[in-house]
Amino acid sequence: MQFSHIIRPEEILFPKIPFDAEIGIPQSDFRKLKPGDIFFCEDGFHESGFSYVANAPEKGALAVIAPPGGAERIGNIPIPVFEVENVRKSYALAWSRYEKNPADGLRLIAITGTNGKTSVSSFLHTLLSASGISAGLIGTVEYTSGESHCPSSYTTPPPDVLYPMLREMKNKGITTVVMEASSHAIAQQRLYGLQFETAVFTGLSRDHLDYHKTWEAYRDTKASLFKQAKNALIYHNDAQAEYMGFSATGSVYYYGRNPEADFHIRLPQCDSGGIRYTLHSEKDVLPVFVPVIGNFHIENSAAAIACAYLEGLDGKTISQAVKQLHSPTGRMEKLDLPTDFSVYIDYAHSPDAMKMALTSLRPLTKKLTVLFGAGGDRDRGKRPEMGAVAEELADLVILTDDNPRNESPCDILDDIERGMKKTNHVRIENREKAIIRALNQAEKGEILLLAGKGHENYSIDKNGKHAFSEKEIIKKWATAIR
Question: Which of 54, 224, 285, 429 has its CA 20 to 30 Å from the CA of residue 200?
Answer without folding.
Answer: 285
